[in-house]
Design a protein that fits this description.
Layout lengths: L1 E3 L5 E5 L7 E4 L8 E8 L4 E7 L4 H12 L6 E5 L2 E2 L16 E6 L9
Parallel strand pairs: 4-8
Antiparallel strand pairs: 1-2, 2-3, 4-5, 6-7, 6-8
């Protein structure tokens, strides 16, 4: 038998034929809302992701690299002018639903003209 207490969260009434019933709290895990994040590079790749604010950016970065067929080590992710690293989260970066993460290909080597 279950009932809703007007003073507390959801509870479950339990008991046995031998003893009195008592109330135990029912664990209620609220679902963290998902947000939309747009990831776009200079080559025209534009992929949207749905993720929780607590999701490590490493997952988004790896998924983007895989989707475009590029090596993650060659990509640099930038949000509002700051480099994003794998341990960052949308929450730590203060991202909002619909924000855009920019991606650039790291260029190494080369030689300036003499």
């Amino acid at each position: 038998m279950s009932f809703q207490s007007p003073l507390a969260g959801p509870s479950k009434l339990t008991g046995t034929d031998d003893g009195p019933a008592f109330t135990e709290p029912v664990s209620e895990t609220p679902q963290e809302p998902k947000m939309s994040l747009r990831v776009m590079d200079q080559n025209g790749h534009d992929i949207s992701f749905k993720l929780k604010a607590s999701t490590p950016m490493a997952k988004v970065m790896a998924a983007f690299a895989q989707q475009i067929g590029s090596d993650l080590s060659n990509l640099r992710f930038i949000f509002e002018g700051e480099r994003v690293v794998g341990g960052d989260t949308p929450q730590s970066l203060e991202m909002e639903d619909g924000d855009t993460l920019e991606v650039f290909t790291e260029q190494t080597g080369g030689r300036g003209s003499d």
